């Protein structure tokens, strides 16, 4: 991979959007980063160019066999106006893990970080500064070789696109209702669940529609084998506080290894709050609920950071958690994580990377 | 959907390729069919235009969440020069089943057939006539709305592209070696296995690479839950002849409902050969093998039509089937099916559709 990025500036700059009316993932900045992979040459042509539609062959393999991976992270505006990234190295590591699962050639993580920094340098005015807002960063790789053979492509394109996003909680953090999904499977043992690859997401649309139709915000996924064990919630990892201990499903080969999940665990350990990663069944969650020991529940992910769960419905029976109020640990995690991410709180872990 | 297709003819026509050197899915004809879906308007703008790269927004949802479906069928050249399609209605029905699983709006199957016929009318000279050759037809739908929200798109594009293909068996039909995959999963219960959607295919690349590395042509997939029951072989359905009876895994919610599979079953019933659709475990296959009752095995699919299996390796133990020779039933099925498909044999089932 070459270190020098060719930059073509956009002739016309777009106006910055009003953060109050921003919908997630619909507005993009003036520029994007692109790079190509050619067999025998590796990753070549790193470029920053105006954000615009690109040409793709109708036979490009990504359109047929979904050979693609992506990442999602955010840049926040610190109180003194700097751009702050949260554990971006973790995202690039995960990108390469996803690449391996999807038979996509690995990228040089350090160089990719350099490219991202150059792109952010150019687009830094796009990082909004209102409370709760950020610039969402979406690196992704697609198979571009025009071929209908069911086999890994010989050509790929990597993009980094940027999208300013409004607050996830414009009216303040509040608990949501979740439905446990008994029929549909997000990812199975031996499948692609640990990879951030498109197929895992569109596979969940039916279940999400069912949950929404019944008044729930998201779906809780169970394991694909026995439909007994808790896996994730929508596009978040999930935690339960049971009788003083915070429990989250252990990593296996179907759960996505969330960067927020990892940070929650490390923060709880730092706070000396008991936390364990282990298999947890819905039966155990229900029993804890019935015994009055299910004290808090929340999801963790880049989009919402922490999302308290106020109601969890399994087989038609709703469990109301903490009287539908945000729990203490949930609130502390949200405040501390968002504080560190936005540079408003001190970062004892070295998680943030500031771009001045 | 509108019945009138706007046709823009290619200014320059490509030369027809030599069928001897054709690689599958690398050469495309002069024109393609496209149609768009817009929320509130439905499927609009049916068009036949020159085959060429198209513009796509980098945020097009298909590139992020793989919301896409496809189909695959073939047009053959009959001895008197007509184009013959094999059960195309089955493909369009399956397209809509895939659409439902992927939350993509359904298409009007009759109209889509009309569009395909118009495209074939224009491209009929592209159907090769050498033995074993055909014109591969690839309808597919992709989510085009530019949005990073994890939700069904509000805009789609449907394409039909055409690719002349050489003979699958340039040296005559011959048995292949297959490896049973114990670790990776293609599709799980509650997953997307019955849909022809990209994610199922790239998910299998790792397993295919492992099998190829060990000298096998393809992978035999087991069920995603217990890893005990036979599902499919590569991109084919699978049949075993055990002690005079032909057995194929029954349809469940992870196996693709092959058009060739259905035709094999109907043909065997017509011939009064015992055939059953039921769950079949690898244990049962191995026991049959050890008892000398595993008489034949083959895969079925549009690409190869029938692919005899000469060796099946499970947990390191190879089973040699019928002395690595193509079995009698396997051969008859291949000859009759290809005979009907190419219009060389009489079609007592009304399976073929001739375009004059
Ligand atoms: C399926 C899934 N689980 C969990 C997460 C949470 O991961 P992270 O904390 O890295 O955002 C995500 C993505 O963000 C996800 O897509
Ligand atoms: C996974 C899979 N199984 C089986 C088949 C066979 O289906 P058909 O006979 O309709 O070609 C295909 C596709 O062709 C497939 O992709």
From TrEMBL, chains A, B:
Pathway: Amino-acid biosynthesis; L-valine biosynthesis; L-valine from pyruvate: step 4/4; Amino-acid biosynthesis; L-leucine biosynthesis; L-leucine from 3-methyl-2-oxobutanoate: step 4/4; Amino-acid biosynthesis; L-isoleucine biosynthesis; L-isoleucine from 2-oxobutanoate: step 4/4. SUPFAM superfamilies: D-aminoacid aminotransferase-like PLP-dependent enzymes (SSF56752). GO terms for biological process: amino acid biosynthetic process; branched-chain amino acid biosynthetic process. Transmembrane segments: none annotated. It is an enzyme of class 2 (transferase). It comes from the Bacteria. InterPro entries: Aminotrans_IV (IPR001544), Aminotrans_IV_CS (IPR018300), Aminotransferase-like (IPR036038), B_amino_transII (IPR005786), BCAT-like_C (IPR043132), BCAT-like_N (IPR043131), BCAT_family (IPR033939). Its EC number is 2.6.1.42. The keyword Protein biosynthesis does not apply. The keyword Amino-acid biosynthesis applies. Keywords: Amino-acid biosynthesis, Aminotransferase, Branched-chain amino acid biosynthesis, Pyridoxal phosphate, Transferase. It catalyses: L-isoleucine + 2-oxoglutarate = (S)-3-methyl-2-oxopentanoate + L-glutamate; L-leucine + 2-oxoglutarate = 4-methyl-2-oxopentanoate + L-glutamate; L-valine + 2-oxoglutarate = 3-methyl-2-oxobutanoate + L-glutamate. Its cofactor is pyridoxal 5'-phosphate. Pfam families: Aminotran_4. GO terms for molecular function: branched-chain-amino-acid transaminase activity. The modification N6-(pyridoxal phosphate)lysine is found at residue 196. Belongs to the class-IV pyridoxal-phosphate-dependent aminotransferase family. This is Branched-chain-amino-acid aminotransferase. It comes from Alkalicoccus luteus.
